[in-house]
Write the structure tokens for this entry.
Amino acid sequence: MNNFELYNPVNYIFGQGQIAKLSELTPKNTKILLAYGGGSIFKNGVYQQVKSALSGYEIVEFGGIEPNPRYETLMKAVEIIRAQNIGFVLAVGGGSVIDGVKFISAAVNYSGDAADILRKRLLFKDAAVCLPFGTVLTLPATGSEMNSGAVVTIEATQEKLTLGGSALFPKFSIVDPTVITSLPKRQLQNGVVDAFTHVMEQYLTYPHDALLQDRIAESILKTLIEIGPEVVENPTDYKLASNFVWSATMALNGLIQKGVPSDWATHMIGHELTALYEIDHARTLAIIGPNLYRVMFDTKKEKLAQYGSRVWNLTGTTEEIAQAAIEKTVAFFHIMGMKTRISENAQNIENTADFIVKRFEERGWLAMGERQNITPEKVREIVEMSY
């Protein structure tokens, strides 16, 4: 097992009616920025619950944070915070809102060009320079409620880039599974596939000695396979909703990544599809993931076989199980409503591979994946296979 450090200070508050605890968790005697997205919180009752819990607080509202939050939008919030001396941010929304608030937290006291936070993939480790924030989760998918990473899009250059660091954990996250009942089916489908692929990025690498991490990862995958199709159709079922929400959190709160190799190339390529074509994040993962496994089959087949045997109960030779496991994954994505080709999700895609390869080369991203063997030419092969 690789050496590791495990640090996760998030106060995670789970269950029905927990939004009422905001008054105990949010700092008093400071101005609060209430950040949210497109306004769904007004329709599902979350906004009123938040406002009731924070009665008496001085609150400034900032709405309109996009899916795949835009740097340009977030900088408007940064200016409001600076101008109004706001001391705490409450992110009420899904992963995009929470990711956006992480960027806001980092940017408020950053003295240089804030875009460099993304372009240079800066890590923030000093909490004193970041604005504290908490979250109320409304859409399970990204695990952002219990980790310190974020992804933000610079619209001007069509780049989807990351930031993070130990100073960017939420102070608290309130997770009430009942909030998913009002979500559109497409968002529920995306959430399941996003969480599933988060696990695969940390699990589907090569055999190693971290036995417990593998078993935990496999249990999350099996749970999502079991409940995923059902929770999309029956989001009011509390058993399904609660297991979905907790699986999404566990998929990316850092636990299963400790002591093991991880990949993340599927995400890096998928981010480019979102930046180029506005394809939903989860759907880019469903497009790229299986083809990455096919192109990198020789170096992933042992773990693919383990996955196929333990998660899908497949039998046969290593090669047979590994190949069948990829097909099982694609079939699951189809059950979850994913269209697994770029051409099914976007138009005028002929130069996609050239564009992505050129961009990766310009950034110096020449060796990706758990073995650092996903080269730009491998990226080209993966993307072209995905047309």
